[in-house]
Structures are given as structure tokens and as C-alpha cells.
């Protein structure tokens, strides 16, 4: 195996695992956190980063010359839209009169 | 909803538009014909009395109302109803008005107080300027029991209201962007892709170029793109750093979170700069923009560490750097300016603004409140 | 030979590795389904479905790379666009009840 390919394969492996890890964090957050606002945190952030790493791994695998560019495009798109969507959802919750959870409240 | 007004006075919200003169003429004619007992012209202010530079705006509004009153008197004399009462007023200077709902509400209150039963709208009336407010406002007014009519005057141009002006530059920018997107996905050297790409980019540019951009791209645009490109790695690093912190919090068995809602007044312009900032805040873990109404951001923070970082305002400085250049980026942090409030928990310095979220006023003491957080 | 066919260790190629990762993402997606079903508020569900959608995009991309099917990436792009529209539309609609979008 050429050294360059080794580095590439290693990066693919690392990025995929990081993607899995942050998506796992996101899932844990979405399940564990007490209210819709805190869940939106992980849903928008950990998940975006997880998806970002996984898509970077895909881009490395496919190669930038071919369809890998689409993967980068997808990555960029997710980075722009995910926080926007989370903001829209949190705003909807806020305008519905959903009071953010604070210490001592009951878990919802 | 109050008592439905019975008197048939007419109220006309005014704003400098191309059709204002014709609308005033129509209102006067209609009032004279229906034998109405009062004709009111009101100016709904988008500013507040204690804003800076408010004198100029107020003077402008007063001038406009005087002008309108003169026109109306002249028209009423023409229509043989010279003794019909004309009154003018400036409304909504005690608070910023945001949605069409708030405009409609102020108008309704005024109509009720003066026993006016009919609202006559200038078809070009758009109080906030670039937003399409008329149709939603008509919709809001229709539920108040007032009679709402649009003055049947000719518009100078037949454009749609949400649509901005069409210029070659805007058309070209949208065309180029969509063509580029198509070619990235397809293959420009393959004739079929090339032809379909040009065709669909043309369709997109024809249908959407008036909606997508509301002002021409200028020389500033490429500069912003370059500065934005510098910002991306910085933002990525911030995201990565704080994601690790938040991941540790979420994965630890005791779940040591202290969620709190905060309010921060930021110094960036509306539109793209505010969107960039709000999205950056949301992307940085531990902080989530819940609401953005003009310069006020309501931010939900998950852990105190993220809250401190937010109040340091580095993202705000970066946004100003991208959009306004390096000089503009030097400014005190929101904490030093006293532009942040904690809205929940033991450190709370203001109330949760639920009242204002559905069309009410902003919490009055929010601006003046001195807090432990802001005093530090 | 493409990168996807490179053997990493013990006969496992990069493509296989990505497929296993995709399987991992499917398992995580199942965890998120809990929130989509449980709720309790409408926004919780929209949020969970949005996260699931992002997950689906990632799974599609990983499958595309792992199986050597670059067209999957196009589907992923369309899915990402629809996912965003879904979140925006539903949150708009739940607040304004079909008012002005």
C-alpha cells in the first residue's frame, strides 16, 4: 500500500468513527435531556458534527474528482440547514409557550 | 375584541408610497360620498420614542401627515364636504412594532378609541419597507370587526409585493449560481447536461431572481466571501472544541446540565449578518438561538461554560468582521456593554418574554435592568 | 483499484468498513425513534424526525461509498433538501396554524 493511501484509509477510519461517536452523543442527548430546547442542542450540534465527519469520510473514499464533490456539497448544506431547522423548531416551541426546563423541574 | 364600532369614520394608514396621493384622493371622495363624520390618517411608527435619531424620523412622519392633511382638505373641498373632520396621528411609538399582527392591533385600538368603522388601505402600503406586510395585515384586520378595503387606485407598476426590483446584476448572479450548482452535480462537457443546465438556470433566474436577492451584489460581496472563508475554519474549531465539552456533559452519568435562557442584544444588521450570527451561535454547542427579533437574540444555554463564552461575544465580532470589515470588529463584548440578561434561574435579571412573543410589547424593564452578570 | 477496495485488516475492505458504520448509524437511528414516538410535544417529534433525516442522509452517503454506487449521493442530496423543508414547514405550521408561511 502506498503511504498516501495508508494516510487516506486511516483518515477514513478516524472520521467514520468520530462520526459514529458524535451521532451517538446526539442520540444520547436526544433521549436523556429533559426538554425540547436542550434536545435541540444536541440535535443541531453533535448531530451536525457527526454527519460532517461521516460525510468527510465518504468524500475521502469516493475521491474529490468524482462524486466526492457532492459529498462536500452535502456536508456544507447540512452545516447550514441543521442549525436553521433546530432554531425553527425551538422557536416554534417557544411561541407555543413551552417554558424551558430549569434545575428542579420535573423531567419531561 | 372590543365593541364593534358603528360610526362610519375612515382611518387610513399612510406611508410614502407611489400611490399615496391617489389613495388620499380616493379616501376623501369616499368619505364625502358616504357622509362619514371623520377622516383619520395615521402613521404607524417602526421606531420607539427613546431611539437615537428619532427626531428626524418623527419630523419625517409629521411632515408626511401634514402633507396628507393638506391634500385631503383640498380634495374634500372639491367633493363639497369642506367641514368633514380630518385628523392625523402617529401610532406605536411606545414600542417597536414587529409582525403584521401588531400593526393591525394598533390600528384596531385607534379605530376603536375614535369610533372609526372602516380601514382604507393603500395597496402599496408596506410599513417595514421591504417586507410584504399588506396581505397578512389585511388578514389580521379581517378578524377585528372593522371594514377593510383596499383603495382601488392604479399602481405605477404591476409588480408582486414580495418581489423586489429586477436588475441585470441580480438576474446574472442567480443565473450563475444555479448554473454552477447544476454543473457541479452534472457534467458541463456533456452536451445534454450543458443544455439542460443552461435551461434550468434560466428558469430559476427568471422566476426567482427577484425573490432571492433584495439588493444588487456589490464589490463588497467577494470581500465578504473571502472573509467568510477565513471564518469557516475558526467556526469549525469552535464547534469541535465545545462539542467535546458538551459530549462529556451529556455522556456523564449525573448529567450535570444547568439549562438557562438568556437574552443578548447584538450589534449586527438584520438579514444575512443576523442569520449568520444566529446560526453560528446555534452551531456552537451549548448555545441555541431560540428567537431572533431584530437585534434581540433569545439564546438557550445548556451549561454555564457555554453561557460565559456567549457573553464574551467572539462570534459577534467575527460576524462583524465578515460583513463590515476589520475596523467594525473592535467593540466591547456584550457583557461590557451590558447587553445580556439571564432570564431564568437564581441569577435571573429579567422575565421570560412570553407576553411579547405573541404580539404584545417587549418587557419594559429589560433594557434598563442592571444585573449581577452585566455589572461585573 | 479504488480506495473502497483497499484491504484494511483481515480481509476487511474500506467499503465493508463503511457498510458496518452504516449499520451502526441504523442502530443509533433506532434509538432516536424512541423520542419521535415518545414526544411529548409536537416539537420534540419534529426534532427527532429531523435528526433521523440527517441520519438517513449519512446512511445513504455511506452506502453509496461502501457499495460503489455514486448515484446514492444524489438521492442523499434530495433527501437533505426535503428534510430541511419538512422541519421548517412543520414548525411554521404548528405555530401559525396554516397562517402566513
Which short descriptors sum up this protein?
heterotrimer; A: 108 residues; mainly alpha; C: 101 residues; 3 helices; 2 strands
Average pLDDT of chain B, rounded to a whole number, is 74
Shape of chain B: globular
Q: What structural class is derived from the secondary structure elements of chain B? A: alpha/beta
Assembly state: heterotrimer
Strand proportion of chain B: 5-15%
Task: Provide structural commentary.
The complex is a heterotrimer of chains A (108), B (376) and C (101). Chain A is mainly alpha-helical. Chain A has 4 helices and no strands. Helix content of chain A is 78%, strand content 0%. Chain B has 3 domains: 9-150, 3-Layer(aba) Sandwich (Rossmann fold); 168-212, no CATH class; 220-375, no CATH class. In chain B, the strands form 2 sheets. Chain B has a 5-stranded parallel beta sheet, sandwiched between helices. In chain B, strands 7-8-6-9 form a 4-stranded antiparallel beta sheet. The two termini of chain B are 46 Å apart. Chain C has 3 helices and 2 strands, in the order ββααα. In chain C, strands 1-2 form a two-stranded antiparallel ribbon. With 101 residues, chain C is mainly alpha-helical. In chain C, β1 (7-9) and β2 form a beta hairpin. In chain C, α1 (14-38) packs antiparallel against α2 (42-67). Chain C has helices at residues 14-38, 42-67, 71-96, and strands at residues 7-9, 12-13. At the A-C interface, α1, α2, α3 and α4 of A face α1, α2 and α3 of C.
Question: Could you give the topology of this structure?
Answer:
The complex is a heterotrimer of chains A (108), B (376) and C (101).
Chain A: H1 3-32, H2 36-44, H3 46-62, H4 68-95
Helix pairs in contact in A: 1-2, 1-3, 2-4, 3-4
Chain B: E1 9-13, H1 20-34, E2 38-44, H2 54-78, E3 85-91, H3 100-113, E4 116-121, H4 134-141, E5 147-150, H5 168-185, H6 191-212, H7 220-251, E6 260-265, H8 272-283, E7 287-293, E8 296-301, H9 304-312, H10 314-324, H11 334-337, E9 340-342, H12 354-357, H13 372-375
Helix pairs in contact in B: 1-2, 3-4, 5-6, 7-10, 8-10
Chain C: E1 7-9, E2 12-13, H1 14-38, H2 42-67, H3 71-96
Antiparallel strand pairs in C: 1-2
Helix pairs in contact in C: 1-2, 2-3
